[in-house]
Design a protein that fits this description.
Blueprint (H helix, E strand, L loop, with lengths): L7 H15 L15 H13 L22 E3 L6 E5 L6 E3 L12 E3 L4 E4 L16 E3 L4 E2 L15 E3 L13 H4 L5 E3 L6 E2 L13 E3 L4 E4 L12 E3 L4 E2 L21 E3 L6 E3 L13 E3 L4 E5 L12 E3 L4 E4 L13 E3 L4 E2 L15 E3 L6 E3 L12 E3 L4 E3 L4 H4 L7 E3 L6 E2 L13 E3 L4 E5 L12 E3 L4 E4 L13 E3 L4 E5 L12 E3 L4 E6 L11 E2 L5 E4 L10 H14 L2 H33 L9 H7 L8 E4 L3 E7 L6 E7 L6 H12 L10 E8 L5 E8 L6 H5 L17 H21 L4 E2 L8 E3 L5 E3 L6 E2 L26 H4 L6 H17 L14 H8 L4 H4 L2 H10 L16 H6 L6 H14 L2 H5 L12 H13 L4 H5 L1
Parallel strand pairs: 2-4, 3-5, 4-6, 5-7, 6-8, 8-9, 9-11, 10-12, 11-13, 12-14, 13-15, 15-17, 16-18, 17-19, 18-20, 19-21, 20-22, 21-23, 23-25, 24-26, 25-27, 27-29, 28-30, 29-31, 30-32, 31-33, 32-34, 33-35, 34-36, 35-37, 36-38
Antiparallel strand pairs: 1-2, 39-40, 40-41, 41-43, 42-43, 44-47, 45-46
Helix pairs in contact: 6-8, 10-12, 10-19, 12-19
The structure holds 2-acetamido-2-deoxy-beta-D-glucopyranose (4 copies).
The site of one 2-acetamido-2-deoxy-beta-D-glucopyranose has 5 residues, from loops.
């Protein structure tokens, strides 16, 4: 059972939003002071000296301007003393200087989201006017040590945040008395231990307590006097003893009339849930008590909390029935009662929960029929009814509920009958488990429509018949379990072609014949075939008998062959086969072409191309690719210069590549895609099949030639030129726009599959056009589920150095694959190194090379040409001087950002490399990429590159 996505992040999100919005600037009136303002300046400089500042965020902290105007520093309105220090999210590294304690007038310190280390200096709590400090937030750093006692003695403190650090120690007993004004107490995700002191009941102004994910222990005190408390999160600690009185504090929260979040999960708390929960605030949205030791009946009073969004009670020992008034919880998005001792029938009222997305009722003792009324939950995406005593038949309405995309688990029940054909409605479902039931009959053909499936478990039923051809379309399957059924006949070869199976279980059936040898059948640990007595052959590791009957058949054939008559028969058959194949081939080729090009784009003849290219003379040859040669030519009738790609049809795959490209380019139109003008499909002079694609001509050739100019130009007068930083960024944007179009704007999304500089062409204006769609694939459906249509695929393509790890890991052809390629392309553009460079071998790749250099050595690996360019052009005239016309839209938006300082330029490049989401993108390494890395990830991966330079608006206009 996978419940990981209900984890920590969910708890934090509402509170974080609140913290961000509530920590607004508070005006601060400071008393006159005789102390000199030099003290504050020196303290700030000491702070600056102690930290590393890789982004130059504190560059303004110098003598040119008064310290009150330094970045992140705010002084009081009457006197030049620092009152607010706000250094949020600046990438600062290192320790905090104790001199910060000299900023005696500080009222707010915001240091969250940096990489600050060591202890929080106790001097912070020893300001000379502790009459004034009310806010300290240092969340999201790497502070260690203990919380200085001096801090927890500041009675002025209203907001205290140290969330997500590495702080140890325990909370002082008098905490509730020393901080009487506290509103926000946020210590979650540290290593704090010991009890929550009972004195916290004195915090009458408390609004938020976040103490989750620590090692706190002992009895939970009363929170009776906290009318403003709305966020109560103490989850993931070692509180409670598992006994009945563990939950005695719960009723104290009924006084908090605005309570919205209640999270006490994973705390070891035991006992029965008190009925007073019905008196909780009706504003309550989040109720988490999962993974505890609670028992007894679920109080029906919960049914009155009509604003509940999440009701997580799984993994306890609740018994009795599900209260039928849960049907009143109209706003419920998640109901998780999995893994308890609940019984009875599943109430029909649950069908009223039309907003329900996640329903977990598995691992209980429910009986009765599988509830067909759940099919009224039209938002349901995740359904788990497994491991109950449900019987009857599988309701067609429920198994065909097309909203379900993540999981349907009906395993380990007692339903009988057939698997309804409506299962084919679950086109985007990723996991279906109907194992260990009593299902009979054949597997419905429609199962082949569930092309999103990655896990299919059907073991332990009475399915009979053969493995359907329709299963062939489930090419994205990673786990296929058909074991313990009555399946017969041969194991189809297409299973060997599945790209990503990690587990194939065919054991205990009645399969017969030869075991395939390729693909997953090469892996005796991933594949299980035991208990099939009629199988033979296969790799030795499977210990199957040799296929004797086959061999004797073959021997008979030998005998036959010796007779002349038989020879004629065989030749005859062969001729018929060849004839049929040729006809098929012709039909196959003709079909897409006749439909692929519209009337405005007539077929061109072989003769016309011959003329245009001077008989395909080598003078006009401008490249030789995987599947064809590329010529430059001029169409005689209108004088247009074109590029002609002649397919090498002898090359296996060339024809498929031709079809893929025609199909992909049929309906796409975008400024940054190479336009196909026409195609030629005919017969050449030698009566051979001839196929060619004709594109518009790109004056500046392929990007490859610009990035890696040949030191000894083979083509005579070809000038050696380089691209400057801005041209490169423009190209990066052009390519991102093309990808965005292919992935998100096309009617049927297209994955390019072979993005690299040699496939990116530059026109006279240096606008980039993505070309070469010979390996492109369509994505089925336009949902977030990115499984490629394998029926139109031409096998795994890509080029060494570019092929995303997903491919080599045996995952799906997906948008993420292109995004990965895009990332490599960016690295190539800005380091000037090719991923196929000789330096990169064994474990060293361009990817790991750059990852290694982040953050400290980025400029070292940045293409020398880029930095050189800037230095050469650096002049007193300012940046305009070195930005040429062709630098495009960035001219405008960058001029304001740049000075003519070389270091500033380096900072900009640095910013681009480090913050241009490259760091995030580098996370797309094999293994870590297996989560739900969907559209959100992929679209987020090329746009920030652009946004980082603040030019988003310019771009979209
Ligand atoms: C602190 O600075 C950040 C970034 O400039 C800003 O978003 C935030 O609102 C500031 N917070 C306060 C309390 O001033
Ligand atoms: C000093 O600060 C000013 C103004 O904030 C800034 O323009 C200048 O670049 C800084 N000087 C140095 C050497 O960082
Ligand atoms: C410090 O005080 C002096 C006079 O008291 C004033 O001229 C100067 O501007 C102050 N410095 C800052 C940074 O405000
Ligand atoms: C403060 O906390 C103590 C327990 O530590 C308790 O005895 C006392 O009654 C509390 N005071 C108030 C006003 O709640």
């Amino acid at each position: 059972m996978e419940l990981g996505h209900f984890g920590f992040a969910r708890y934090l999100a509402p509170a974080c939003r609140f913290l961000l919005s509530s920590l607004a600037l508070a005006p601060c009136f400071v008393q006159a002071s005789s102390a000199t303002n030099e003290t504050d300046k020196l303290a700030l400089l000491a702070f600056k000296a102690a930290v590393k500042d890789p982004y130059g965020a504190l560059a303004s902290w110098n003598d040119t301007i008064g310290f009150c105007h330094w970045h992140g520093v705010t002084c009081g309105p009457r006197h030049p003393r620092v009152t607010i220090l706000n250094l949020t999210s600046l990438g600062l590294l290192g320790p905090i200087s104790p001199h910060i304690g000299n900023l005696s007038f500080l009222s707010e310190i915001h240091l969250q989201n940096n990489r600050l280390v060591r202890e929080i200096p106790p001097q912070v709590g020893r300001l000379r006017r502790p009459t004034s400090l009310h806010t300290i937030t240092v969340s999201g750093n790497r502070f260690s040590g203990t919380i200085p006692p001096s801090l927890l003695n500041l009675s002025s403190l209203t907001r205290f945040g140290v969330l997500d650090n590495r702080i140890q120690g325990s909370l002082p007993a008098g905490l509730g008395l020393t901080l009487p004004n506290l509103q926000i107490f946020s210590i979650a995700k540290n290593q704090l231990e010991g009890p929550i002191p009972p004195s916290v009941s004195n915090w009458t102004k408390l609004e938020v307590i976040q103490s989750g994910a620590n090692k706190l222990s002992g009895k939970v005190p009363s929170f009776k006097n906290m009318p403003w408390l709305w966020y109560f999160a103490i989850f993931d600690n070692q509180l409670g003893s598992g006994n009945a009185e563990d939950l005695s504090f719960v009723c104290s929260l009924t006084n908090s009339t605005g309570l919205r979040f209640f999270g006490i999960d994973r705390t070891g708390l035991g006992g029965a849930l008190p009925k007073c929960i019905g008196n909780f605030s009706h504003a309550l949205k989040w109720f988490y008590v999962n993974e505890n030791l609670m028992f007894g009946e679920i109080p029906g009073e919960i049914g009155s909390l009509v604003n509940l969004d999440h009701l997580n009670m799984y993994a306890n020992k609740f018994s009795g029935e599900v209260p039928s008034n849960f049907g009143n919880l109209q706003n419920l998005g998640a109901l998780l009662l999995t893994d308890n001792n609940l019984g009875g029938t599943i109430p029909t009222s649950l069908g009223n929960l039309t907003k329900l997305i996640t329903l977990g009722l598995g691992w209980n003792n429910f009986h009765g029929e599988i509830p067909s009324h759940l099919s009224k939950c039209q938002s349901l995406q995740w359904l788990d009814l497994s491991n109950n005593n449900l019987s009857g038949t599988i309701p067609p309405q429920l198994i065909g509920l097309s909203s379900i995309t993540i999981v349907t688990d009906l395993s380990w029940n007692h339903p009988s009958g057939v698997l309804p054909m409506e299962v084919g409605n679950l086109k985007t479902l990723t996991e279906l488990d109907i194992s260990d039931n009593m299902l009979v009959g054949e597997i419905p053909n429609s199962l082949g429509d569930c092309t999103g499936l990655t896990t299919l478990r059907m073991g332990g039923n009475f399915f009979r018949g053969s493995i359907l051809q329709s299963i062939k379309s489930l090419g994205g399957i990673e786990e296929l379990d058909l074991s313990r059924n009555n399946l017969t006949s041969r194991i189809p070869e297409f299973l060997a072609l599945f790209r990503s199976p990690k587990l194939l279980n065919l054991s205990y059936n009645s399969f017969e014949g030869m075991l395939p040898l390729e693909g997953v059948f090469k892996n005796a640990t991933a594949t299980s075939i035991i208990g099939n007595d009629e199988l033979c052959g296969g790799l030795p590791a499977f210990h199957l008998p040799k296929c004797i009957s086959k061999r004797s058949k073959r021997r008979k054939i030998h005998v036959l062959v010796s007779s002349a008559c038989a020879t004629f028969v065989i030749i005859g058959i062969a001729l018929v086969v060849v004839f049929l194949y040729l006809r098929w081939l012709k039909k196959k080729v003709k079909e897409p072409i006749s439909t692929s090009m519209d009337d405005s784009c007539p077929n061109i003849s072989y003769r016309a191309l011959l003329k245009a290219t001077d008989d395909f003379s080598s003078m006009n040859l401008i490249g030789v690719g995987n599947f064809g040669s590329v010529y430059k030519g001029m169409l005689k009738e209108n004088g247009t210069t074109v590029v002609v790609k002649v397919l090498h049809l002898v090359h296996r795959g060339a024809l498929k590549s031709f079809l893929a490209e025609c199909e992909a380019l049929r309906n796409v139109r975008h400024r940054n895609l190479l336009k196909i003008l026409t195609v030629c499909s005919g017969i050449d002079h030698q009566q051979n099949d001839f196929k060619a694609l004709v594109y518009e001509y790109m004056e500046n050739g392929s990007l490859e030639r610009w990035l890696h100019p040949n030191p000894t130009p083979s083509h005579g007068n070809e000038p050696t030129r380089t691209l400057n930083f801005f041209q490169r960024i423009n190209i990066a944007i052009d390519v991102a726009s093309a990808l965005d179009y292919l992935h998100h704007q096309c009617h049927i999304p297209i994955v390019h599959c072979d993005l690299k500089p040699s496939n990116i062409l530059l026109d006279a204006e240096m606008v980039a056009h993505v070309g070469d769609f010979g390996l492109a694939k369509f994505l089925l459906g336009s949902s977030s589920n990115t499984v490629a249509n394998r029926t139109s695929s031409v096998g795994i393509g890509g080029t060494i150095g570019f092929a995303p790890p997903e491919y080599t890991m045996g995952c799906k052809v997906s948008r993420e694959g292109d995004v990965y390629d895009y990332g490599i392309f960016l690295l190539e553009m800005f380091t000037g190194l090719s991923p196929t460079d000789d330096t990169f071998k064994d474990n060293l790749t361009l990817h790991s090379f750059v990852a290694e250099a982040l953050l400290e050595r980025v400029l070292e690996i940045t293409n020398r040409i880029l930095l050189q360019e800037r230095e050469n052009h650096s002049s007193p005239n300012g940046p305009q001087h070195w930005l040429s016309e062709s630098d495009g839209i960035f001219q405008e938006c960058l001029v304001t950002e740049l000075t003519n300082d070389v270091d500033d330029f380096k900072a900009l490049v640095y910013e681009f490399m480090v913050n241009g989401n490259l760091e995030d993108w580098l996370q797309l390494t094999p293994g870590e990429n297996e989560g739900p890395s969907n559209e959100a990830v992929s679209s987020a991966s090329y746009w920030p590159v652009i946004e980082i330079l603040g030019c988003e608006v310019a771009l979209h206009n």
